[in-house]
Structure formats: C-alpha cells, structure tokens
Amino acid sequence: MKKKNIHIIGSGFSALAASCYMAKAGYNVTVLEKNDTLGGRARQYKNDGFTFDIGPSWYWMPDVFERFFADFDKKPSDYYILDKLNPGYEVYFGENDSVKISSELEEIYNLFENTEKGSGEHLKKFLDSAKSNYETAITDLVYQPGVSPLELVNTTTIARVSQFFSTIRKQVRKNIKSNKLIKILEFPVLFLGAKPSNTPAFYNFMNYADFGLGTWHPRGGMYKVIEGMVSLAESLGVTFKTKSNVEKIITDTTNTVTGLMVNGEELDTNLVLSGADYHHTETLLDKNVRQYSEKYWDKKTFAPSSLLFYVGFDKKIDKVSHHTLFFDTDFDAHAKEIYDNPKWPTDPLFYANFTSITDKTSAPEGKEAGFFLIPLAPGIEDTDILREQYFQKIIDRLEKLTNQELKSHILFKKSFCVKDFEQEYNSYKGNAYGMANTLLQTAFLRPKIKSGKVKNLYFSGQLTVPGPGVPPALISGKIASELICKNQ
Ligand SMILES: Cc1cc2nc3c(=O)[nH]c(=O)nc-3n(C[C@H](O)[C@H](O)[C@H](O)COP(=O)(O)OP(=O)(O)OC[C@H]3O[C@@H](n4cnc5c(N)ncnc54)[C@H](O)[C@@H]3O)c2cc1C
User: Fold this and answer.
1) Which of 242, 245, 419, 470 to mutate to test the pocket of ligand 1 (most atoms within 8 A of CB)?
2) Averaged pLDDT for residues 131-143
3) What is the pTM of this model?
4) Which atom of ligand 1 is nearest to the CA of 280?
5) Which residues, 6+ apart, have CB-to-CB distance to 149 below 8 Å?
6) Which residue is closest in CA terms to ligand 1's atom 13?
C-alpha cells in the first residue's frame, strides 16, 4: 500500500518528535526548515574553538526524554551521555553571597534549615505535594490533547482543585519568610513563562523537577539531544530539507490543505503539521481561515523575550557554577517591567551558564564559554546601543559580585535579541519560549493542536499544549501525532 505523506514545518523539538512518531506510524515524512541548520531555538553556535547552545541549556525532567526514546525502543544513552550536575546550580544574592543547590535532597533540606529555622520541614511537605502533582501531571495531564476540559477532571485533580485557583507565590510564601529561599522556590516556574503570582499552585511540580529529579547536562550540550533525535528520525525514514522557507499554506474551496509554497515553488501535500510558532503559521493562511485574530494574540500572556550573549573568555572564571543565577536585584520590579509595564529593565536579574566548567568540549583548554540571558518584555525596542548598554551592566555586576576583573579577558561576544527571534524563528513579538502557562492559558484553553478551520492542518510546539520548554515540546510532538493518526 502507498504510504501517506505528511509535511512538517520547522525542526524544533516538537517538530522532530512529531517526525519520529509520524514515521513510526507509517507516514512518508518531510521536514521543511527555513534556517540552514536543524533544531529551531535549540541550535548551536560555534566560534574559535568554543561551542554554545543558542537556546535551552537546562536539561530537566529526564523521565520525559526517556519516555520519548522508549517509544522507539531506544534510550537517551543510545545517543548522548548525561551527567547529573552537582551543584545543580548556584544563586547569587549579593557580593560574595551565593548558595549552591546540591544534587542531594538532604543537603537542600539542610541549606533551608540553616537559612531559616523550620523551613526544612516545610520544604519536605511542599516537595511531597510537588512530587504528587508531578506524577499526576506527567503520567496523565500533560499528555492530553487539550481538546476538552474533561481531560483535566479525575479524582486526583478534583481533590486538588484549590491548587488551580491559588498561586505558586501564595503557596511558597505561606510558610517560608526568607527572601533568599522564596527566590529559590519561585525560580522554577519562570520556565513556564509567567510571574509566580500568575501561575497556579498546581505547577509546584516544577519544584519537584528541580530538587527531586535534578539538573542534568548532555555532554556536548543540548544540541546533542537534537542530533540524537535527527539520527532517530533518519533511521525511521524522515527526510530533512533545510533552507526551505514555507511562505504559504494553500487550501481549496472546501478549506482543505492542498499544498505549500516553499521558496517560491508550489509543493503538493494534503497533510501538514506546523511546529513553527503558531501565530506565524496562521499568517501563512488566507485571512478567512485563520482561527485566532491579532487581538486574541495581543491579549495573551507571552513568555519573555531575552537579550542573550555568547562570550568566549581567555581564562577560567572563578566563583561561578555551570548554571548561575544572579538574583541580587528585585525580582518583582523586573517582572513588572516584563509583564505589566513593558520597558527595558531598570535593574535586571540575569542568568549565566559556563558549560565549560563541567564540559571540556565547549571551550578550548584554560578558557571559558559564557552564555548570558536577561529576560525582556516581548516586542520591546531592540537596538545595538541598548544591547551594548546591558552587556556592560551585567559584566560590571558579574565582576563586582564575584570580585574579579573579566572585561580584558573577553575574546569575542555575539548577541541575540528580540529582532533575531523574529527574523530567525518568525517568533511572535520576538518571544523566546512561547505562550505562558497561566490558569487561563492551560490545557484546553491554549491554541488548539488541530485547526478548527482548515482540514488536515495541525500545530505543535510551545504556543499550543502543553506549553513552553523542551520536555513539553517533546510531549507536544507526541500528542499532535496521536491526534493526526486518530483523525486520518
Ligand atoms: C534562550 C532560550 C533559553 C531556553 N532555555 C530553556 C531551558 O533551559 N530548558 C528548557 O527546557 N527550555 C528552554 N527554552 C525553551 C525551549 O527551547 C523551547 O520551548 C523549545 O525548544 C521550543 O521548541 P518548538 O518545537 O516549539 O519550536 P522551535 O524551536 O521554535 O522551532 C520552530 C522552528 O520552525 C522554523 N520555522 C519558523 N517559520 C518557518 C517557516 N515559515 N518555514 C519553515 N520553517 C519555519 C524555525 O526556524 C524553527 O526552527 C529556552 C528557549 C530559549 C529561546
């Protein structure tokens, strides 16, 4: 029997996952990627012996990656080597004032207890609830296609309904008073793209992902996971076409997909899955068959954009860890400047990674690869002058906080910001990691995987279910594929 064809737009994590599932289901799969390399936001930048992950760097929820590869009778270790980081990460609160988050839970309890008496016991209870929420979410909820509200209803979620209407911020602050501990506990939900005061308490499962499951690093960087998935997809027969910009999704009078315009040429297809940003994909359609208006998108809470720097240093850097968070400024003030009153942050918190501390492959011997990230409001003005101003701000802070001179040791730096997110990925307002997981943007309330207006058009990725981040992108590829197979 002749195999059915499917064309997949984009080659980010969700598209790669979907390509594997669709090939396994017996489809002829072609992936069309506009850029010249695969991986989407998780591409790689190499310069002068240094290697940087352009986007994601925190490998959390290893069980989700295991589950993905197990669906193909494989293991992550068939494609890359994982190291558990210890410390998982370090957080700076002031000059020479930092804490390291151990990979061992007992040590984290001790850190809490030594910082605030009684908080170790509170943390144990908090993590019990977080673990149980993680199990509910990961074994069931996040693998649902977001078609109906009933997907969220089971005996466990009914018992925890109050957690959907309370927030992480309230839950954390109920029993913990230390500012430092609050910042540590509120940090993981930033991966969901919204403020802790706007994120349902149920999402405390991210704290279990953090302390309970730990922070891992694929040797060679996150790009090794992309390479692993591409290799798996190729072994299943997927065809990859880079430099293939999809300019239009063509439909007939019955609003059924009939083709794609790629680099000015028409290509026949009657089944399309787009792993490109959802908003952009809809702009490839005629206006009458778009499901969501510009007003709809404008009202949504988007995850931040980011100003990023990839920096080569000519020496090893002291007093920092593989992942280092600089939370020495006011978290709430910065969040307001992202979500409530968008502007360039007055006093930004920032994140840095120095993967070459634990991974020799990312920098030449004796040198350090530095990646810096400042979260910014999506859609904000982006100029070279602003980028440079903010680079100076964070390098000054890094020097001061860690008490060392670094500027004269910079070999090169490359920046990436709002305009690049728009140009490189067709990202809505230059968002870095999609649409946030707030209460009103969870599960069936997110943009739908199946187009309600165009037959045989589907979506995956961080603007649909389940949400932002690499593990959710893998899950998104799986549930989109399952829905296609069910409907075809
Ligand atoms: C700076 C940064 C740091 C992050 N850190 C982490 C982290 O530490 N841990 C974590 O879990 N997550 C992190 N994330 C989030 C994570 O990287 C994303 O959620 C995930 O990679 C998104 O995958 P995706 O499949 O939705 O799409 P994307 O990776 O965005 O892929 C979409 C693809 O579609 C292509 N495309 C767009 N338009 C077209 C077109 N017209 N024709 C053809 N192709 C097109 C794009 O070029 C792109 O390759 C981070 C993201 C960023 C940006």
Assistant:
1) 470
2) 91
3) 0.98
4) 38
5) 443, 444
6) 56
